[in-house]
Amino acid sequence: MKSASISETKNHFSAYISAVRHGETIIVTDRRKPVARIEPVAGSGAAAAEGRAQRLQRQGILLPPRAGDLSRILKARPPRPRNQASALAVLLGEREEGR
């Protein structure tokens, strides 16, 4: 995510719009305080999800899939809970804590 002052945004608007078209988000600042965000308009369907995934990969948040991982995961047995753990008890505990 790039940050730019109002005057810098005004002077390089075309370049920033081009970056936004490629999935970048621009934070506009006024005296170093964020005042606006310029980001791509969310589309619909697979194209929007693909663009979002590419943006997250560029930012280093999401790793690209590796070949064969899905079939290996689907064939593996799910982990067994330890010591008679109860998902319901955990959920109720989180609700009581306000999470």
How does this model look, in words?
There is one protein chain. A three-stranded mixed beta sheet has the order 1-2-3. It has a domain at 1-67: YefM-like fold (3-Layer(aba) Sandwich). Helix content is 47%, strand content 15%. The protein has helices at 6-11, 13-21, 45-58, 69-75, 87-97; strands spanning 2-5, 26-30, 33-38. 1% of the residues are buried. It has five helices and three strands; from the N terminus they run βααββααα.
Brief write-up:
With 99 residues, this protein is α+β, with helices and mostly antiparallel strands.
Question: Which helices and strands, and how do they pair?
Answer:
Blueprint: E1 2-5, H1 6-11, H2 13-21, E2 26-30, E3 33-38, H3 45-58, H4 69-75, H5 87-97
Parallel strand pairs: 1-2
Antiparallel strand pairs: 2-3
- Strand content range: 15-25%
Q: How far apart, in Å, are the first and last alpha carbons? A: 29 Å
Rg value: 21 Å
Biggest sheet, strands in spatial order?
1-2-3
Q: Can you name the CATH architecture of the domain at 1-67?
A: 3-Layer(aba) Sandwich
Query: How would you sum up the major sheet?
Result: 3 strands, mixed
Please give the number of β-strands: 3
The fourth-level CATH homologous superfamily of the domain at 1-67 is: YefM-like domain
Features:
YefM-like fold, alpha+beta, 5 helices, 3 strands, 99 residues
